[in-house]
Amino acid sequence: MSLPYVAFEGIEGAGKSTVSDRVRNLLEADGYRVVQVREPGGTAVGERIRSILLGHDLAPEPWTEALLFAAARAQLAAEIVGPALAEGSWVLSDRTVYSSLAYQGAGRRLGIDAVRAVNEPGLGGVWPSLVILLAVDPERGLSRQEVGDRIGDEGVEFQRAVAKGFERLAADDPERFVVIDTHMALDEVVDAAHRAIRSRW
User: Fold this and answer.
1) Which pTM does this prediction carry?
2) 155-170 per-position pLDDT tens digit
3) Which residues, including other chains, have CB under 8 Å from residue 29's CB and lie 6 or more apart?
4) Integer Cα distance of 166 and 4 in angstroms
5) CA 136 to chain centre
């Protein structure tokens, strides 16, 4: 059986953090040990990198951006995610490698396969078993943002390109992806995500 490593993915304003928090509560009520992480970040190294990537004071070049995300992710996989899975915990992640494939691979036009190739060595096989893709219209997603970061402030056309990247990833890997329409009520979205996870494990 695959390890219970669940990614919550989607463009800006899809509700990843909110849904992940609610699902964590449900899984803990079910009796599971759950470790919740976010990308970029989740480690001391990752949080330093996060400040570079998402702050407005610097503007990394696209490949610099992609490699920094990969570096933060490699640290998280080695320090937190891998050990948590090894000791039998579930891991819920607000963004994972699939964000890089969609944002830098598709949105920045670096190529999904090229971005995948630079991430794989650092992950050491620690790869999400299930991806909950929270689908939202880009305009609506951006309107939900309370405080934008550097990448979130790229604008609606960039978000459209990222959304198309996520759609391609989901179409190419239907066994791993579950797509949930977030235009439903929040309780319905959370219930759908919880049911998708429990049906897998």
Assistant:
1) 0.93
2) 899 999 999 999 999 9
3) none
4) 21
5) 15
